[in-house]
Each structure stands twice: as structure tokens, then as C-alpha cells.
Amino acid sequence: MPEIGHRETIRNAFTLDAEARGGARPTTARDSKQYEPPEGYILISHQEVELINRGNATASTGTAPAGYRIINTNDISGNFDSHAEWRYAKIWGKVDVDAQWKNIRQQVEEYQKLRRRIVGNAIARGEQFGAGAHIKVRVDAVIEYVGTAANASQYITKMLAPANVPDVRVLSKTWSTIQDDVKFEYKQISAPWWDYDLFMRSSKPELDNHQVYYALGGKSGVYNFLPTLKTEGGTRNVTLRVQEEIGGSIIGQKETTYNVTSQNVRYDISYTKQRDDTTLFLFIKWTDDRTDPIILDNYWTFITYP
Q1: Which of 11, 71, 102, 148 is most buried (most C-beta within 10 Å)?
Q2: CA-based end-to-end distance of the chain
Q3: Pairing of strands 228-231, 265-266
């Protein structure tokens, strides 16, 4: 599949060839052809290259609307929900996403106006008791790939190119608990699998500690765990902990405690992973005996990684 913006020249998109006999019984010959760019392409320009022209003969070419539909703005906007990068740009990027989208929309709407095909006609008339006629014209076309619905992600990538978006991992629904002391409830918010809220309730409030964790591998380097959390009740202390392990042995760790309220807030804890062959455990911990939930908003929860 070509990249959006790829331009090429099609030699001999078609050839008009009309040849008529002269003499006692002269003939008239006609030829009609057309060229429509492949799906996803628009016609930029075309050129006639005259190969033969003798006698009473003429040829002409022009453009007409194409029969296919190239990518439109609905294809792109409908694809936003399956690409998480646009929301990262709002957090880390310095790009004006709305302005970029306006520019892309105008560009795609202009492409629709260029949704054309080439049409050509030739006619040659032989002269009675005279010479015949022959015209042969090759038509070349310059086309540009502007995409189909399958290329919507390229437009999103192009739109967010100035955003300086880091490598970001979207968390799946694979949170765990150590002592079965927490009850999980995933509430799906919309169609994308990563758009969910995770409700965490203490099922054994008599225990001193309650915790859930998420495990991941990866190469050494700096990892930032950026969960968005809130509670259904009053403020409570919640500890974020990043722990590096291999074979059950802890080789590094870091933790920070925050006051989590009933308003969504994105928190941050950074850790430098020491080895490529270890596992990182991301912990969310609390020590109170309350049974109202702590809620993680996964739509605005990220891990940045090297």
C-alpha cells in the first residue's frame, strides 16, 4: 500500500487510434477510451502525446467525474476511536489538535473535487477518391495517492506528527491481586477496549494492606506510570509502587503516596528499569478499612517506556 502523497506518472494511460480509408468508398473511424485512477488515487494532470496525425483526423481529451469514492473526513474522524495517539497529543504534545484536524479536513475535501477520470475521443474521415486519415494519440496521466478508508490512520499520524508523543502503552484488563483481598469490576465506557474504568473494592477490610498490580516486561530504561484515580468517598491515601523483579527477587523499587479525592487526577511515578530480562510490577496500594471503591480511569492512564 503506497504512502499518502505518493505521486507517479502513468505512461500510456490509454491510446486513441482511429484510421480511415480514402478512395471510392471512404470510411470513417472513431475511437473512444477512458482512464480512471485506481482506488485511493486522484488525477493531478494529463498530457496528450501525438504519435500519428494525417488527413482529416482529430482527437480530444478531457475529464469527467470518477465513479469511485476516495477517503473522506468521515473515514478519518470515525477512525479516531481506534487510535489512542490523539489523546496522548493532548497530554504531552504541543500541537493544536483541533487546528490540525481542520487543516486535514480541508485538504481531504479538496481531494474530492479532484475525483476525476480522463475521457478521450478520436475521429478520422477518409476522403472520397482521395487520401485516408489516421490519428494516434497517447495519453499520459499524473496521479497521487490520497488514501482509502483503510488509510485513515496515516492522516491521524500526519496530524499528530508535531506533537512529540512518547512511546505509550495502553493497559489491558489484566490487573491482579495478591491475597484475593480486592474485588475487581471493569466498566466499559465505549467501544475501544482500552476505554474502561476499573473499580477496586476491599473484600477483606480487616487486612492491613490492600493492593492490585499490573505486570509487564520490557527493556531497561525510564518508565513512567501515570494512573488517573479517584474515590467514591472522601479523601484517602493511595500508594503507587513500581517494583522490578527477577525470579521472585526484588532488584529495585520506588513508591509514592498521594491523597486521592473524588475528582479524577493523573498521578505520576517514575522508575528506571535496570535490566532487560526483568519484570516490572505496578502496584496501587492502600491501608484503610473502607469498602467504597478506588477507581482507575484507564482512558487517561498510561505507561511511557523507553
Answers
A1: 71
A2: 29
A3: antiparallel
